TrEMBL record, chain A:
Family of the protein in this entry: Belongs to the UPF0065 (bug) family.
Domain of life according to the entry: Bacteria
UniProt organism field: Salipiger mangrovisoli
Span of the signal peptide: 1-22
The UniProt record lists the keyword Signal: yes
Protein's name in the database: Tripartite tricarboxylate transporter substrate binding protein
Entry keyword set: Signal
From TrEMBL, chain B:
Protein name as annotated: Tripartite tricarboxylate transporter permease
Transmembrane parts of this sequence: 21-40, 52-74, 112-135, 147-166, 173-191, 203-226, 261-282, 324-345, 357-381, 393-411, 432-449, 469-490
Keywords recorded for this protein, A-Z: Membrane, Transmembrane, Transmembrane helix
DUF112 domain ranges (all copies): 21-441
Length: 323, 505
């Protein structure tokens, strides 16, 4: 993929003048997007590429390593490239779930080093504009009364993070996740099509992907699954919590490194992220890429991941995904 | 209508800007070359070029025009290696091999290439015109197509293909079953359980369609060539200066019209793209017009149908992408990603908020189609001369290109083993006189059939009546029945007439 190297290098050379403050000296820094170009992981890496540009000595190149929903990259960075100090790999909450359910093989969250975040997105409960459901309460009441009466759909299989959002709602409504009538689509786009076409009644998507639909009036967001209200343009959207339902779903987007990288290499990346988080420009990049700010790096991120994994494991066990 | 016209005016102003015009040309030309290379199709063409377009710092509309040109060009170019080498350049070009390659073998490579260029142009242009006039309404219709309707569509596709290929019905069915089995590999889209992955992370997401096509078709064809060469039974192909004639166009005009309509409507449905469109168009056309059993032996209609359909589908799949932000095919999914990279939110508001991007793209498709015809027709002779390259150079060259092509999709060496393995498997199947097309179709249609059947049943809570609960499904089942029964009935009537005539004489 030489062409890609060249072009990304060019992008950075053209796009960003190098300002004069401290930079991390990383040899041929690289961000691995464990998917095809154009997806969420690509976007995550672009945040690192543009956001870190002023803070690393040479431009971050984006490379792609698709295969097995990210499993190929996770295995690579646990074996052949476990000590590669110049590469970071993009991950999301979905990757964490895959680690838990064993789809990433024998390695777990302790075998890699968590570097920093690119930002976050939050779950959203979405219905069609002309839906009878006016608030999250309407949905939850129906789920409580008869779980089979609500057809929920999203862009991932049973056990994926899209399903998890529905499972958490179901649990909060007093049922078990397996009672839910869930329809798995191939990606959020197909699920949105099914919602607009009336095949499904409720779509458990993400806030970020709702931006183009907020103005068009095709769909309504009944609840955002964030800890508190988000900033504009989402400030009008009520959270599930304020409607009295303790359901939260944060999609963390960030980066990890191989587990055998030296402390020195690891620290260089962490410093670069720390420096970027402090700038206005980084916030703007997050905004442009449809991400909400949630900045953590190094120790803080590792601790956060540990906590998240514990919660996710509990939910996954309850949902019957793992024993 | 006024908004369409003023929109198109805006669009043409953008697309006719000299720089953008050049990008359309470059995109179409590069796309044709990418499509012509075995293993490289529109998806990886766009995926490879996306980071470059992003890196060069183009305006979003310019970058999108370039990428769309590549998408279009690759749909055009895919036919070239199908016809000349019997190796589909991409997934949408599988059906093109069935009649295209026999034509080339009969010394009519030039005629096949030029006819397919015209058919592609007609299909593509038809799609763009419908798209610019009715995009919002069409997209509204496309989303009402629910999982149950997709099931019916797949049944229709299977029905129209049942007649398809092979001398032996049993082997055709066995082939389709092998395809269905290959489609079950990977994480189950419904329950998330890995199926037949044997702990290999490389096939967790299933086997890429392109790998099946390049492996089963491409590699198996190459092995056959090597075998013939080793035995000294390799015949060199005759090359003449044949070109499409008015008689050809007259004979295929209704084929092209029907295939364009089928291709476009399958294209606008999210989740089905050029490969399904070309297969259904070919199957339908064979059912309708193959009275003398010439399909599969180099019938121009069998070549024109899939080509018109796959280009119409490429245009059709832009409809849900531009109007709803929902990708209609794998390639448009990448184009959507490209929009996000440029900080443009694709979706219902795009035509209103970024008219220069949306309409510029539409206008560039008009220009692109003309450009492709203009680029392709004079090059026909050049492409046809490819056949004069001695086989002992050509075979390894194609093999190298296929390996490079497959490696660039994913950059995973495992896929190279896969195409090699599938190639050997395909070669054995050919030895056993299996036709490979049913395998590929079983693979494509089977995956879609299973996913949608299970979605439909999840929606209904296990109630099978959902499958026949609306007019769209019922219409498709009726059509499916029709394509099976009609040829039988027509055959009987023809025989009865012949008997009656014999009696009266």
């Amino acid at each position: 993929m030489k062409i890609i190297h060249l072009s990304t290098a060019l992008a950075c050379a053209l796009g960003f003048a190098v300002p004069g403050f401290a930079q991390s000296e990383i040899d041929h820094p690289e961000c691995v997007a464990p998917a095809n170009p154009g997806g969420g992981f690509d976007l995550t890496c672009r945040v690192a590429q543009t956001g870190l540009a002023p803070h690393v000595s040479s431009p971050v190149q984006v490379n792609f390593m698709p295969g097995g929903i990210g499993a190929v990259a996770f295995n690579q960075f646990n074996t052949n490239r476990a000590d590669d100090g110049s590469a970071i790999v993009a991950f999301s909450t979905g990757s964490l779930l895959n680690i838990i359910t064993g789809k990433y093989g024998a390695f777990d969250e302790k075998s890699v080093r968590w570097v920093g975040t690119a930002g976050a997105d939050f779950g959203a409960v979405v219905v069609r504009a002309d839906s009878d459901y006016q608030s999250l309460k309407d949905v939850m009441d129906d789920l409580s009364a008869d779980p089979q009466s609500v057809v929920v759909g999203a862009g991932g299989s049973v056990g994926s993070q899209d399903w998890m959002k529905g499972a958490l709602l179901m649990r909060e409504a007093g049922g078990t996740p397996m009672q839910m009538r869930y329809v798995a689509f191939d990606g959020g786009g197909d699920a949105i099509a099914a919602l607009l076409g009336g095949s499904i009644k409720v779509y458990t998507g993400d806030v970020g992907e709702m931006v183009p639909y907020l103005d068009s009036g095709d769909m309504r967001v009944l609840a955002v699954l964030s800890p508190e209200r988000l900033e504009a343009p989402f400030d009008q959207l009520p959270t599930a919590k304020e409607q009295g339902y303790d359901v939260e779903w944060t999609i963390l987007r960030g980066f990890y490194m191989g587990g055998k990288t030296s402390d020195e290499d690891y620290q260089k990346w962490v410093d670069a992220f720390e420096a970027a988080y402090a700038t206005e420009e980084f916030a703007q990049i997050q905004h442009d890429k449809g991400l909400l700010p949630l900045n953590m790096s190094g120790e803080e991120l590792s601790a956060s991941i540990e906590g998240r994994m514990q919660t996710l494991r509990e939910i996954a066990t309850e949902a019957g995904l793992i024993q | 209508m006024d908004t369409v016209l003023s929109g198109l005016a805006t669009g043409f102003a953008v697309a006719l800007d000299p720089f953008n015009l050049m990008l359309v040309m470059v995109g179409c030309f590069v796309g044709t070359l990418i499509g012509a290379l075995p293993g490289l199709g529109p998806i990886n063409g766009v995926a490879i070029l996306l980071p470059i377009a992003y890196g060069l710092g183009f305006q979003p509309e310019s970058a999108l025009i370039l990428l769309a040109g590549i998408y279009y060009g690759a749909e055009y170019g895919g036919r070239i290696s199908s016809i000349l080498l019997n190796v589909p350049g991409d997934a949408g070009a599988v059906m093109t091999t069935l009649d295209g390659n026999p034509m080339a073998r009969a010394g009519q490579a030039g005629r096949a290439l030029s006819l397919s260029a015209v058919a592609s142009f007609a299909g593509g242009t038809f799609a763009v015109i419908l798209m610019s006039l009715f995009a919002p309404a069409l997209a509204g219709f496309a989303v009402t197509f629910g999982p149950a309707d997709y099931v019916a569509l797949m049944v229709f596709a299977f029905a129209s293909l049942a007649s398809l290929v092979g001398k032996s019905t049993v082997k055709t069915l066995l082939g389709a079953t092998i395809g269905l089995m290959l489609a079950t590999i990977g994480i189950d889209a419904n329950t998330g359980v890995p199926r037949y992955t044997f702990g290999l992370p490389d096939i967790l997401a299933g086997i890429d369609f392109l790998i099946v096509v390049v492996g089963l078709f491409g590699m198996a064809e190459l092995l056959t060539l090597v075998e013939h060469q080793a035995r000294g039974t390799l015949k060199s192909l005759p090359v003449d200066k044949s070109f499409v004639s008015m008689a050809d166009l007259a004979a295929t005009k209704w084929t092209i019209a029907r295939a364009s309509v089928i291709g476009f409507f399958i294209g606008i449905l999210p989740g089905t793209g050029a490969s399904v469109a070309s297969a259904v168009a070919y199957g339908t056309e064979k059912r309708i017009s193959d009275k003398d059993g010439t399909f599969g032996t180099g019938d121009p209609r069998g070549l024109a149908a899939p080509e018109a359909a796959n280009n119409a589908a490429a245009g059709g799949s832009m409809v849900p992408m531009l109007t709803l932000g929902i990708p209609g095919s794998g390639t448009t999914a990448i184009l959507l990603g490209a929009l996000l990279m440029f900080n443009i939110q694709p979706g219902p508001m795009m035509f209103a908020q970024r008219p220069e991007v949306a309409w510029g793209l539409v206008a560039s498709m008009y220009i692109g189609n003309v450009a492709l015809l203009v680029i392709n027709l004079p090059l026909v002779g050049l492409f046809a001369r490819m056949l004069t390259i001695p086989q002992h150079y050509l075979t390894p060259l194609i093999a190298i290109l296929a390996f490079i092509g497959i490696y660039t999709i994913v950059g995973n060496p495992h896929d190279l083993f896969m195409i090699t393995g599938l190639g050997v498997f395909g070669w054995f199947l050919r030895k056993l006189d299996f036709s490979l097309a049913p395998i590929v179709l079983g693979f494509v249609l089977g995956g879609l059939f299973e996913d949608n059947l299970r979605r439909a049943l999840s929606i209904s809570g296990g109630d099978w009546s959902i499958l026949v609960s609306n007019w769209k499904s019922l219409l498709l089942y009726a059509l499916a029945l029709l394509v099976v029964i009609l040829p039988i009935w027509l055959g009987r009537r023809a025989r009865a007439n012949a008997v009656r005539e014999a009696e009266t004489h």
